[in-house]
Amino acid sequence: MRAIVFEEFGGPEVLTLADVPEPRPGPGRITVDVAYAGINFADILARSIGYRVPELPFRPGLEVSGLVREVGEGVSGLTPGQEVAAFLDGGGYADVVEAPAAAVFAVPAGIDLRTAATLPSVLPTAYGLLHEVARLREGDTVLVQGAAGGVGTVAGQLARAGGASAVFGVVSSLDKAEHALKSGYDQVFTTDTFDREVLAATGGRGVDIALDPVGGETFSRTKAVVARFGRLVSFGNASGDEPWQVGPADVMPTALTVGGFSILGLAASDPELLRDIADRAFHTVTEGGVELPVSAEFTLEEAARAHVLVESRTSTGKLLIKVAG
């Protein structure tokens, strides 16, 4: 079967299409014939700096949709031929993948496999950030960094559906503002001026909830616009800057709560909790309140091109690799 592999860390050019053995499911696991694979920024970090890569060679790809191929011993509730979406610890850019059954979700009725591939990573992440960590409440004001990306596109819609009184987004360029404004955001600011503009939009008060996947200086500037008793949640360090340290002097004067979230960590440590969060998150899609538009689609052979687009920081929404069909 075909799979994208890299044997060293580096630029998109290290991604190669290889012929590899087809996996067979072990106990508690299944295999899936992949229809679509989602592309995430974590894939870029894995390829470039070895983020969460246990050893080389490594196959990138954290989420797929497709049909159950084979079911391992002890698996119940999943049958061959069933349409599923799966969250993986790697290997999604391939014809066939193996996954723990606890991280495989039946595709809800009315959702096609193309849409389903956008859900396993992004949707539970956005839902977990807002509802599990930040504890979104009716009337909260929300700020989301990376508002035009995959998580940002969904987070804006979830915040609006969850009763936020105002939702503000931050994008790297105004070219992305239109996309964000269609995703639940009231106002969209750019990275160079967002802190001043957020304070102006809130009458100097700041926001109740801020979500930050960027880290570094952006984290520090975001912290400065969180209101008293507010919640700031970090879920990445896309900037690559040195992580910003938080101490008592940073949080005590305004009773600030600082939290973090990693869906990869949750999948590894508590897959049953991930399933619970994912089930609730997927329900928001079937109700028609949330969608994640696919902005570009590639073949397996074009995986390197997809990574180039992601790293250009010009893409919006979700990028997919079409594997079958």
End-to-end CA span: 15 Å
User: Biggest β-sheet: count, sense, barrel?
Assistant: 7 strands, mixed
User: In terms of structural class, how would the helical and strand content be classed?
Assistant: alpha/beta
User: What spatial form do the alpha-carbon principal axes imply?
Assistant: globular
CATH topology of the largest domain: Quinone Oxidoreductase, Chain A, domain 1
What is the count of DSSP helices, taking H or I runs of 4+ residues?
11
Mean pLDDT: 93
Radius of gyration using CA atoms only: 19 Å
- What is the chains' assembly state? single chain
CATH hierarchy: architecture of the largest domain: Alpha-Beta Complex
Question: Total strand count, please?
Answer: 15
For the record, what CATH class of the largest domain applies? Alpha Beta
**SSE string, helix = H, strand = E?**
EEEHEEEEHHEHEHEHEHEHEHHEHE
Domain module count: 2
| CATH homolog superfamily of the largest domain | Medium-chain alcohol dehydrogenases, catalytic domain
Which segments are poorly predicted (pLDDT under 50) over 5 or more consecutive residues? none
